[in-house]
Amino acid sequence: MTIQLQLTLGILKEIHYHRYNHPAPLVQRRMEALWLKGHGLAHAQIAELVGVTKNTIRDYFELYLQGSAEKLKELNYYVAESKLNVYVTSLEAYFRDNPPASIKEAQSEIETITGVKRSKTQVAEFLKKTPSPLPKSRDDPCEG
Fold first, then answer.
1. pLDDT over threshold 70, residue 22
2. Do residues 58 and 5 make contact, with C-beta atoms less than 8 angstroms apart?
3. Residue 8 and residue 13: Cα distance in Å, rounded?
């Protein structure tokens, strides 16, 4: 069964804009598929041109039926939560009172306090994302 869509000129203009201007490539691909559907191409041909399977094309069109172009713009990527998130408050307080001299020192202290081992890069990212700015070093205290 072929999915039937009613795409007005206004909708096609919006779709055309997002084919090239949306920041997410996935959304651009979805809009391209819808654009081609609006110009009467068969699902198999759309799938080939867009570079996805016919089932994926059907999924895109069903998303559109559920909530128009806005539904096609939704991105529901899974992002794993850091094991350190439960320690944010206590680690922030600890590092405010005891600023680490280096990322390596912070890495060691985090492992000692939480039992969670993280790479230097992960520790640096974690420290950047704390709710309140932390001192850059022992010699640069942060005003609370």
1. yes
2. no
3. 9
